[in-house]
Amino acid sequence: MKQNKINKKFVYLISPNKITNINFYNDLALVLSSKKISFFQLRLKKETNLNKLIIGKKIKKICKKYKVKFLINDNPLLAKKLDADGCHLGQKDMDLIKARKILKNKIIGVTCHNSINLAKRAINAGADYLAFGAFYASKTKIVKYRASLTVLKSIKKITSIPVVAIGGIKLSNYKKLLLNKANFLAISGYIWNNKKYKPLEAIKKLK
Question: Counting beta carbons within 10 angstroms of the beta carbon of residue 196, is it exposed (0 to 12), middle (13 to 18) or buried (19 or more)?
Fold first, then answer.
């Protein structure tokens, strides 16, 4: 996960909350073809494991084609079953050391909310990236924690592990996070629920 100074593939794309529309897979292929996406996270909180497996297999093929890392939210066992590139862990999910035993040298990222202490814990446990947020109000999930640019600056002083910024990121605010050295921007609603632009148009606007 080494970084160039200017990261052209700065988008960490998160799936919509539901994947029911057959056009989703076409839209996903178009969005990934933009060459702006490093990671795609499958995040389906209300779906059965069987459906996640079926959907995950389709998505994995598309990710592979466009050289995008495919991550599973919350579930290291499902990530292993799908032979995904890794897993994202929230604070209430399996702990990182257990997950590491299951996923070996795959990518494991950890939600740190707005806490440098949680980040230090994740660094010590061997996280591959740290996710902070929400930076802005989000319609994708209820915002319990708000992170500030100060947190971003502080974490950058103590580690070189990549930092993912999350929460309400869109056209009007994404540049500020990149300028403050966020390595990746986790984006979902702006791409999938955009009233103004189709998914491909939305991703192309992020330059």
Answer: exposed
Radius of gyration of the chain (CA): 16
Q: Which amino acid is at 73?
A: N
Q: What 3-state class would DSSP assign to 203?
A: helix
* Cα-based distances in Å from 189 to 52, 158, 172: 20, 31, 14
End-to-end Cα separation, the chain, in angstroms: 21
Q: Could you tell me the pLDDT band of residue 5, with boundaries at 50, 70 and 90?
A: low
Instruction: Assess contact for 134 and 143: CB atoms under 8 A.
Output: yes
- Long-range CB pairs of 118-125 (<8 Å, 24+ gap) are 118/91, 119/155, 119/158, 119/159, 120/158, 122/96, 123/158, 123/159, 123/161, 125/95, 125/96, 125/97, 125/100
Q: Percentage of the chain with pLDDT > 90?
A: 90
122 HSE (CA, 13 A, CB side): 29
Round to whole Å and give the CA distance between 29 and 14. 14
User: Can you tell me whether residue 39 is helix, strand or coil?
Assistant: strand
Which tens digit of pLDDT belongs to each residue from 59-96? 999 999 999 999 999 999 999 999 999 999 999 999 99
Residue type, 65: K
| 13-26 pLDDT tens trace | 999 999 988 899 99
Exposure b/e, 153-176, CB count within 10 A at least 16 = b: eebeeeeebbbbbbbbbbeeebee
